[in-house]
Write a structure and sequence with these properties.
347 residues; mainly alpha
Length: 347
Amino acid sequence: MCFPVFPENAVKDDSRIARAAGLCKKLVGHFSHSWKQKMALKEAQQEHNLPEHSLITECPTRWGSRQKMMERILEQRQAISNVLSADRKTRHLVPSWQDLDVLESVNLALHPLQVFTDALSGESYVSVSYVKPVLHLLNTSVLAEKEDDTNLTKTIKVKILDYMNTKYDDPATQELLDTASFMDPRFKVSYISSERVQDIKTRVMSEMKETARKEGTPSDNTEAQSMDPPSNKKAKRSLGSLLKTSPGPTTPTASSMQLEQALEAELNSYLLSPTIDSEADPLAWWKLHQVTYSRLSKLARRYLCIAATSSPSERLFSTSGNVVTCQRACLKPSKVNMLVFLAKNLP
């Protein structure tokens, strides 16, 4: 189960934004199709001491490209205005102050999300356990309304937050996000509502019991007997071996109670342990503590292996497309698997 990155579609249904975005596309197209205009833009950038950056075009399949296009237009607006104003045929492309206000409002709302999008789309240490902390940060800080925000900026922030909160409002999804965050030693119960903590602990206990029940192994005595080589000579039995083979005073009910107590002690010990740095690798932490939390570590691997977004798998498909081309369409599937594996794992 994967989770999408932040919605740029939430700001596409406003006519002012549609007009400003359309104007940006025309500007980018105008400068990209004329080398004379490119040279004139470069000279204007030098004249105004602006970075000699090229304009960015929007890509429908790449989230954030619209925001980057608008941000670059705002950065180069003085140079763009100088070049376009010099020719009567292109003066109509000069952005008006209303268009610039819209572009600044949109950029102000979307620019902070670009950092989160890039982080969540990574492939290292980005688990689904990150979703709940990121949602909390968006609601309380990043997309919180500020006094100097324009009305359009506030509207965009409200729409994005409404989209994100509704996206993960399903009870089953909330339970998955809470459990994954609970199993992450960086967060634990920090981003789980107080009334939900006990329910998550109960779910984790239940899954630990189920895992222990499925992994029921033969007793130590049976394993020892199966590993001992057959011998015709009768060995002298020690007092310890006699005690090991005796059934003992425990009953099935007592054994289940001992198992439940052990699981509860393991869970409480995990909760009492200090949280690790937010940039640390949770899987490395679980590998280091898998002896201490033997049953809980197996459950953690089950949840922390879920990717936060579908971006890593999409990159894998793109790599496969680069390997299997029209000139290499006869590759066997096993060869394709090997080439894709090497492409993704070799430094």
